[in-house]
Amino acid sequence: MVSLNGSAVSRGVKFAALIGAFFWTSHVLAFVAKQIVEQTSLFVAMETIFLTLQFGIFGVLIGLVYRHEDRI
Fold first, then answer.
1. Spatial distance between the Cα atoms of 61 and 57, rounded to a whole number of angstroms
2. Statement: residue 72 has pLDDT above 60
Protein backbone atom coordinates (compact mmCIF):
# COMPACT_ATOMS: atom_id res chain seq x y z
CA MET A 1 0.00 0.00 0.00
CA VAL A 2 1.19 3.49 -0.83
CA SER A 3 0.48 6.39 1.52
CA LEU A 4 0.94 9.84 0.00
CA ASN A 5 0.48 13.23 1.68
CA GLY A 6 -1.24 16.31 0.29
CA SER A 7 -4.51 17.16 -1.38
CA ALA A 8 -6.40 14.58 -3.42
CA VAL A 9 -5.11 15.97 -6.71
CA SER A 10 -1.49 16.10 -5.53
CA ARG A 11 -1.77 12.52 -4.24
CA GLY A 12 -3.21 11.48 -7.60
CA VAL A 13 -0.34 13.14 -9.45
CA LYS A 14 2.24 11.54 -7.15
CA PHE A 15 0.66 8.12 -7.65
CA ALA A 16 0.59 8.63 -11.43
CA ALA A 17 4.25 9.69 -11.32
CA LEU A 18 5.21 6.42 -9.61
CA ILE A 19 3.24 4.34 -12.09
CA GLY A 20 4.45 6.48 -14.99
CA ALA A 21 8.10 6.08 -14.01
CA PHE A 22 7.70 2.31 -13.96
CA PHE A 23 5.88 2.35 -17.30
CA TRP A 24 8.51 4.67 -18.82
CA THR A 25 11.35 2.29 -17.94
CA SER A 26 9.51 -0.75 -19.26
CA HIS A 27 8.17 1.00 -22.37
CA VAL A 28 10.79 3.50 -23.53
CA LEU A 29 14.06 2.06 -22.26
CA ALA A 30 13.13 -1.50 -23.16
CA PHE A 31 12.11 -0.47 -26.67
CA VAL A 32 15.38 1.41 -27.27
CA ALA A 33 17.35 -1.56 -25.92
CA LYS A 34 15.56 -4.09 -28.16
CA GLN A 35 15.13 -2.14 -31.41
CA ILE A 36 17.41 -0.12 -33.65
CA VAL A 37 16.30 3.48 -33.31
CA GLU A 38 17.88 6.03 -35.65
CA GLN A 39 17.52 9.07 -33.38
CA THR A 40 17.52 7.61 -29.91
CA SER A 41 17.59 10.88 -27.99
CA LEU A 42 14.69 12.30 -30.03
CA PHE A 43 12.65 9.13 -29.51
CA VAL A 44 13.30 9.13 -25.76
CA ALA A 45 12.45 12.85 -25.50
CA MET A 46 9.20 12.52 -27.46
CA GLU A 47 8.06 9.45 -25.52
CA THR A 48 8.97 11.13 -22.23
CA ILE A 49 6.90 14.20 -23.09
CA PHE A 50 3.97 12.06 -24.22
CA LEU A 51 4.00 9.85 -21.13
CA THR A 52 4.41 12.87 -18.83
CA LEU A 53 1.30 14.45 -20.35
CA GLN A 54 -0.60 11.16 -20.29
CA PHE A 55 0.17 10.28 -16.69
CA GLY A 56 -0.10 13.91 -15.55
CA ILE A 57 -3.64 14.14 -16.86
CA PHE A 58 -4.42 10.72 -15.39
CA GLY A 59 -3.09 11.82 -12.00
CA VAL A 60 -5.23 14.94 -11.92
CA LEU A 61 -8.32 12.99 -12.96
CA ILE A 62 -7.76 10.19 -10.46
CA GLY A 63 -7.31 12.82 -7.75
CA LEU A 64 -10.58 14.47 -8.72
CA VAL A 65 -12.41 11.15 -8.70
CA TYR A 66 -11.21 10.31 -5.18
CA ARG A 67 -11.29 13.81 -3.69
CA HIS A 68 -14.22 12.98 -1.39
CA GLU A 69 -12.91 9.61 -0.19
CA ASP A 70 -11.76 9.36 3.41
CA ARG A 71 -8.03 8.80 3.79
CA ILE A 72 -7.21 5.42 5.25
1. 6
2. no
Range of the domain at 19: 8-65
Q: Does residue 46 contact residue 26 with C-beta atoms inside 8 Å?
A: no
Is residue 71 domain-resident? no
DSSP tag of 58:
H
Domain count, the chain: 1
Q: Is residue 1 in a domain?
A: no
pLDDT tens figures, 12-71: 999 999 999 999 999 999 999 999 999 999 999 999 999 999 999 999 999 999 888 755
Does residue 55 contact residue 23 with C-beta atoms inside 8 Å? yes
Residue 33 domain-assigned (yes or no) = yes
